[in-house]
Design a protein that fits this description.
Structural class: mainly alpha
Largest sheet: none
Helix content: over 70%
Number of helices: 5
Shape: elongated
Number of domains: 1
Low-confidence stretches: none
Mean pLDDT: 93
Number of strands: 0
Strand content: under 5%
Distance between the termini: 21 Å
């Protein structure tokens, strides 16, 4: 799982970076030329795809913790193992939730700020924040990207640590089964 998550996390963040890069390449969103409007359309589609893929990666991480948590719980009960294994895994899982939530909210906010940055919309945050709507969207996108990279890295570390806990439990189960003369494989 560590390699799968690492690969998917890197790909998700690369696609987010590419979406940000494409957005930064748009000179003047108010320009109604076909070329500029095509750039905006491509940026929006790539951005939506990147946000969807990044959300999938966060969901994969949380699903991993749900599944291994259940495994640890049932295995610990069946083999009378210490509850410490389950507790460590649970602490890691719930420790990741705030970061995941902030990351997902920033992704949604970045999309909303992108809609506000569209020159044809009547909504504007410029008077409130003192920056152009495009600058607000750009700033939000860069913050979202940085936070998502950080959260993905934290998730990778937690997935790795949780995999080590699962390996420890499997080692204990193997030891107990050998002691009892039960088949190991």
């Amino acid at each position: 799982m560590k390699r799968i998550f690492l690969t998917m996390g890197i790909l998700a963040n690369i696609t987010l970076m590419y979406a940000v890069h494409r957005g930064l390449g748009i000179e003047n969103a108010a320009d109604q030329s076909v070329a500029v409007q095509r750039q905006i359309g491509q940026h929006m589609l790539i951005g939506l795809g990147a946000l969807t893929f990044a959300t999938l990666v966060h969901a994969l991480s949380f699903t991993w913790f749900m599944g291994t948590g259940r495994f640890l719980e049932e295995t610990s009960r069946a083999y009378s193992l210490s509850a410490e294994y389950c507790e460590r895994s649970r602490r890691m899982k719930y420790g990741l939730l705030p970061g995941m939530t902030v990351s997902l909210l920033l992704m949604v906010a970045t999309g909303a700020l992108g809609a506000i940055a569209d020159p044809v919309t009547s909504v504007s945050l410029s008077p409130v924040l003192g920056m152009s709507d495009a600058a607000i969207h750009r700033t939000g996108a860069l913050i979202m990207l940085g936070v998502n990279i950080l959260v993905t890295f934290q998730e990778y570390l937690a997935v790795s640590a949780n995999a080590d806990i699962v390996d420890q439990v499997l080692g204990e189960v193997r030891r107990i089964r050998v002691e009892r003369g039960l088949p190991v494989e």
